[in-house]
Each structure stands twice: as structure tokens, then as C-alpha cells.
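N-acetyltransferase domain-containing protein: structure, please.
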Amino acid sequence: TWATVKLRGFADSEDPPSPDQIAPELAARRADWPVSHYALAHLGGEPVAALGHHTGRDQMVFLLATRTPFRRLGVAQNLLAHWSHEVAAGAPRSLLINCDESSAPAALYRRIGFTDEVYWHRRYQRPDPEAA
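Here you go.
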């Protein structure tokens, strides 16, 4: 259910994802299971949004998706509020959210009080040994 909600939210579509899409999503989440938690929001008994976050001293939301018919209802905002209050009780060193700076999610995070603290970003890639 969580993977289906995530895939629908990211696809901006209510079409059910195919098993070929669900299998790799589940494999990725199972690989992260020891260091991650996953939340699912419901409205009227229907699953409508998904949140994934890494645990530890630095808590980080790495995934937040809301199905298109349920956007702009405060569901994602409530998921983030629940996450931040829940993990703050454990006194983490930081609460982080990973997103593109100019994206719609970044605007949501700023509206609810998160601030930019990373002033530079550099992407590193491992070289492909076969290309050498």
C-alpha cells in the first residue's frame, strides 16, 4: 500500500502502478528498512500520502508523496508535523528534509517553518570503471 501511494504521488496519476514498478520500490525500501521508518496517511480510510525518513542522530525525510486528488488539504503538512514532533522527543541533533531547492515541496517546507541551512551543494558520482 505504501509503495502504491508513493508511486501514484510521484507519477501525478491515479493509475495503479504496475508490478514492474512496485517490485523495485519494495526492494529499495527493504534495503533501507534498518535505518528508515515509513508512514502512511489516511483520509476516510483511504491511503492518500506516504512519508519515508531516515533515523538516527540526524533525522531526514527523504520521501514525501501525496496522491493528486488529496493535495492542498494539509495531509503532507500534517505528516511532516507528526514526524517532527515524534522525532523531536528523542532529541535528535537535526531534522533534515532533502529536496530540490526550487521545487514545490521546498516551498511547502519553507511555509511550515523549515529554513535553508545548506548553502552549497556538490554532487559526487563514482566513476564508471567500465568507461575507463
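Notes: The mean pLDDT is 85.
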